[in-house]
Amino acid sequence: MQSSVAATTLTPSTEATADEIRHDWSRQEVEALFALPFNDLLFAAHTMHRKHFDPNQVQVSTLLSIKTGACPEDCAYCPQSTRYDTGLEAEALMEIEQVLEQARAAVASGATRFCMGAAWRSPKQRDMPKVVAMVKGVRELGLESCMTLGMLSQEQAQELSEAGLDYYNHNLDTSPEFYGDVITTRTYQDRLETLDHVRDAGMKVCSGGIVGMGEKQTDRAGLLQQLANLPHHPESVPINMLVRVQGTPLEEEADLDPFEFIRTIAVARIMMPESHVRLSAGREEMNEQMHALAYFAGANSIFYGEKLLTTPNPQANSDMALFDRLGIEPERRHVEKAPATPSPHFYDAAAQ
Length: 352
Ligand code: SAM
Ligand code: DTB
Ligand code: SF4
Fold this sequence. Notes:
By secondary structure, the chain is α/β, with parallel strands linked by helices. Helices cover 39% and strands 14% of the residues. The chain has helices spanning 4-10, 27-34, 38-52, 96-108, 128-140, 154-163, 176-179, 188-200, 217-228, 258-271, 288-297, 316-326, 344-351, and strands at 57-67, 113-118, 144-148, 167-169, 204-206, 209-211, 236-241, 276-279, 299-304, 329-330. Strands 1, 2, 3, 4, 5, 6, 7, 8, 9 and 10 form a ten-stranded parallel β-sheet that branches. The chain is globular, with a radius of gyration of 19 Å. The structure holds S-adenosylmethionine, 6-(5-methyl-2-OXO-imidazolidin-4-yl)-hexanoic acid and iron/sulfur cluster.
């Protein structure tokens, strides 16, 4: 007979207690989490994880670069900045039908969310009609939609929300103190304002950062502190490991201790118990054991497919083979947070 203890501990509770969903973290408290013995930290993170999620499900998103390279910003990690010679060939904004063709392929490969990224500082008004049509087309295929287009004004956020865009990705990238060492062409405050616009327009927020850029542990703590202390936790928190691209200022950056990466995932899981924590860029450098540890620590989302925006990602079949070995299933849709029925915006868009 199965013990009732096993049954209770294996069933996730969706009830968050008031002391779990916090927006008042001090830096010292976050640093104390990072300083826990590794096993204690992982135990706490995994306990939190299985309380709020099925620990054997991972959400998969497909990513497409709809406009590549020639970006005027100077983000030191980025192969798409026009300031660095990375050998990348710039491409103009894709045609709507080309994007939808890729979205149909994503449906066929089992993805439930389709993310479109553009190497822009912010979208130009002339680009908005095309982008809006892409959102509507992707939604009509039954996919959740996500975009990352740079900074948004309140009006642009509203327009995307009305088109039915489910998620907007805009990362804080690192702590406020380290930020200036990485990017000088837009401020931390600019990023916070875009996140406010996205939230105010009623879209779900995807926001996280990058580790392994030469920042200190207190900067990783500072990034998570900023994200968790937002008025609402982002629904999705991508944790990227720097992909060192030749020609960028960070091409020679030293390796981050892999356990420090896992600690960052675990602390994110503890601080934002109801958010999907996404194991994002850098997976190509991570072996299967590292993936398994990240899933145990609370990562429950990945980008799926052989390319991120411009850099390689593990082959979809190797991800699925690992899921199989670990007894993980791709998440269908998260019932409470992303209803299977389209949002009211979808019906507005479909009626037009
Ligand atoms: N241009 C838009 C912007 O920056 O807001 C959207 C696309 S941008 C490529 C999205 C995110 O990708 C960045 O915020 C950064 O966190 C991540 N990223 C870019 N290059 C990376 C790299 N070499 N390694 C890891 N993450 C990277
Ligand atoms: C995010 O945080 N990571 C993704 C997504 N949001 C758009 C992008 C990673 C890009 C890695 C470098 C590249 O492929 O160009
Ligand atoms: Fe441009 Fe985005 Fe790359 Fe920064 S991260 S250079 S804004 S594409």
